Amino acid sequence: MNTPASWATTRRRPSWLPAAPEDDPFDPGAPWRPVTRAELVAAAADVRDGLLRRVLGPVVVSRGSPDSLGVRAAAARLCLPPGAVLLGDGARWVREGGAPPTRLEVSGARIAPRDRGIPVRVRPLPPQAEVVVVAGLRLLAAPPSPVRPPGPAQVR
Description:
By secondary structure, the protein is of the alpha+beta class. The protein has helices at residues 4-10, 37-48, 69-78, 88-96, and strands at 52-56, 59-62, 85-87, 104-107, 120-122, 131-134, 137-140.
């Protein structure tokens, strides 16, 4: 049986992590969402011991993994059903980073209560919204930055 410390350094699958198909090699740097009670308890212990860190809701990643656009998008994908479009603060967090949202807003999906490990609110897609795909995650495009004409203090 692998100890939590050994899997983070040797890249071996821990005994408590479900088996993956042969064509899906274990990557401790990839976000992962524990689902069963045993997985949640083991992941919480590894977070407490500093081997893992929380990314979004229950989703964890190895402590040494960078906070990148790809990691945030993969973490959000684990909390959403296929085909959902991430909106609001969740989409902003994926694009820009910072503190993760405490709930997600999505469009184009039906979500069962308590199904995703983080509160999810379903709302309609705003009219004329632009949807982009970032690292396999569909999300609302960033609103265009307003172009302000130069003020009197800026004109020389």
